[in-house]
Amino acid sequence: MAKAILSTVLGALMTSVAVIGVTAQSANAQGFTGSFAPEEWQLFNSRPAFSGIDNSRIGIGQTSDGSIGPILDGGIPLAPFNGSADFTDASDALTLLGSDQSAILEEFGLSCNSAPSNLLFLCGSSFTTVYVTVPEAVEISFSWDYLTTDSFGPAIDPFGFAIGNFPPDAPNTDGAFTELIDRDGASSQSGTTSVELAANQIFGFQIGTADNQGGRAQVNISDFSVMVSEPDEVDPKPVPEPASAVAIALFTGLGLYFGKKSHSDS
Length: 266
Prior knowledge:
Layout: H1 2-23, E1 25-30, E2 42-45, E3 58-62, E4 68-72, E5 76-77, E6 84-89, E7 93-97, H2 102-106, E8 126-133, E9 138-148, E10 159-164, E11 176-179, E12 188-197, E13 202-209, E14 217-230, H3 241-265
Antiparallel strand pairs: 1-14, 2-8, 3-4, 3-5, 6-7, 7-14, 8-13, 9-12, 9-14, 10-11, 10-13
């Protein structure tokens, strides 16, 4: 009798599992395509040189009094202020460069130790983020190759990803940064990462820069893929949910019964 019940229950349970299996399939997209195509991403560099002014017009050059400082529409341009993003192979790869603004000072024979006070903003900390708004719940996977030429190694040029509900340039930014590299590790590192994201969240690849001097960090992103859960086109015969719940409950009860019986027989 018990074996007959078990057989019936298992049959109901397997039918229920089959229904779940065909109604929770996944769609997988490879590369930077669709909602994650290159044109959907935006670049943000923190610590703009001057707020409220079009930074693309600002450069470093000789001022009216003959000193070296910020000027409009001339000199060596600051933009992009901290770093850059390049979809070198639009559908397959992304290269993110961190900041090293001290290179501008070197053009004038200066350094972060010798620059006048009106140029020291070039030597502050900053971060560079390339980000996108996630349209629906997804899991993204990617491979990354990190390299820094900074003499201090990766300790002051961390790489990782940021997730938030607002863009990184918004006043109410609430992003959380997850570091992927080992700051005590080698100057060259690599890995593979998967991240689950909710609909409408902001996701960004990010490089931090502690002092904007001594060399920049570079990260190459490849094998980018997006997995989205969606219903299968097949419309299976429905199995009433209460029957499935009862089947699971009965199966659990019978398992406990046979477990106890086996234990007592031994």
